[in-house]
């Protein structure tokens, strides 16, 4: 299974403010879908709604045909998640391998499907697949942003989910590391449905099959060649759209 | 020099409980709440005296019955959208003010029934076998609520959303962590004293982080440093004629400073 996400008339309010007005959207894998929009536009809220971490005030979220609305446990059977680095607490000295092993064993706990040595082997395989074996036994607090991001991707991949959600995966990584990370994400999207939230509209454009533009709702959705048209984006974002050296940039702020 | 085994049992039990709790507090970034809990424990403990007098139940049971739900006040406020720091500040403001009011009441109405000083500074050298059994039981429950679930607490502390996606019932572990903290703070206040509880909840994990390179090592070192400081602290107190809680605190501080000098960052 390569993954399918469907939103049916989903409306999300946070503290009485409508963050996502009624939207319907269907995404099918494999392939890379990029959700773009300025900071505070609702990208993370959209991802958290898909994962059942936020319960919409109206509508349904279906993942691979299963209703996961407001139910992270159900969504977690289909989705691997990579959070923003700023949301991850690096203060506790757990190693990369311990982190991946613990997450896998927790997921398998009710079933007791694998022995500790099988879990260890699976963790090492996942770390190896993302090029993180060299620092598998280092505490996560000592890793760079790019290294930690790879470890978090390994954690999300270790049980081979059909869908991968990544929230701003290159926001805390140096420029060279960014391109490596984009290549890794593009490679993963050949077999899975990969949904990436990014405030940078251009970085995934070459590899995306679909770009979804959000700003307090889904404003545009289509292939990069259609969506990354400055005139279309300007209709949504107004003055927030800048064209620099033939590249579209969205500056932070909320258009009316 | 006569050494009573009860001293080592109560202090060892308390150290085991706090050494197990401390990594949970560090991993879940509950330091602010944990540092405020002794105020709630003091209120519950002194409130247990008039409640015991009125109901005939043991004061320790009355204290736990009042104190554990009181701690849940923070969870309820957080669930209602109050930031955790603000909820904790409200908790401290209420428990600190109320404990002074209740201490005044106890001192004026129940002067001969108990020594409040023992709750403030701790008196492990005056424990009875009954006190020893109670401290050991409290410690056993706290350890049973923390060590077997350390992986769950750590994963929730690192990244709550991902932990919930694995099927973890986050609210269950929240209540478990808060209950264990309240139980240790209230149940062991007489052994270690209100003043040192702050140190014992926070410092073992801070010591361990400075000496550890993995999660498993951190948990082991936290328990080991607390137990080592506890037992050595009792010996030092007997030799120097000092308060054991003070000695335990100084030893933990010495461990922590040693870790810092070795290049730790905890």
Task: Write the SSE topology.
The complex is a heterodimer of chains A (256) and B (266).
Chain A: E1 4-14, E2 17-28, E3 31-36, H1 43-50, E4 58-63, E5 66-67, H2 72-75, E6 79-82, H3 96-108, H4 116-129, H5 145-157, E7 163-167, H6 175-188, E8 193-198, E9 208-214, E10 218-222, H7 224-227, H8 230-237, E11 241-244, E12 247-250
Parallel strand pairs in A: 3-8, 3-9, 6-7, 7-8
Antiparallel strand pairs in A: 1-2, 1-4, 4-5, 9-10, 11-12
Helix pairs in contact in A: 3-4, 3-5, 4-5
Chain B: H1 5-27, H2 31-55, H3 59-79, H4 84-109, H5 116-121, H6 129-146, H7 150-158, H8 160-165, H9 170-187, H10 189-211, H11 215-240, H12 244-261
Commentary on this structure:
The complex is a heterodimer of chains A (256) and B (266). Chain A is α/β, with parallel strands linked by helices and 256 residues long. Chain A has two domains: 1-78 and 165-256, P-loop containing nucleotide triphosphate hydrolases (Rossmann fold); 89-160, no CATH class. Chain A contains eight helices and twelve strands. Chain A has helices at 43-50, 72-75, 96-108, 116-129, 145-157, 175-188, 224-227, 230-237, and strands at 4-14, 17-28, 31-36, 58-63, 66-67, 79-82, 163-167, 193-198, 208-214, 218-222, 241-244, 247-250. A six-stranded mixed beta sheet of chain A has the order 6-7-8-3-9-10, with helices on both faces. A four-stranded antiparallel beta sheet of chain A has the order 2-1-4-5, with helices on one face. The model of chain A has no long low-confidence stretch (mean pLDDT 87). Chain B has a single domain, classed as ABC transporter involved in vitamin B12 uptake, BtuC (Orthogonal Bundle), CATH 1.10.3470. The mean pLDDT of chain B is 90. The interface between A and B is medium-sized, with 33 and 29 residues.
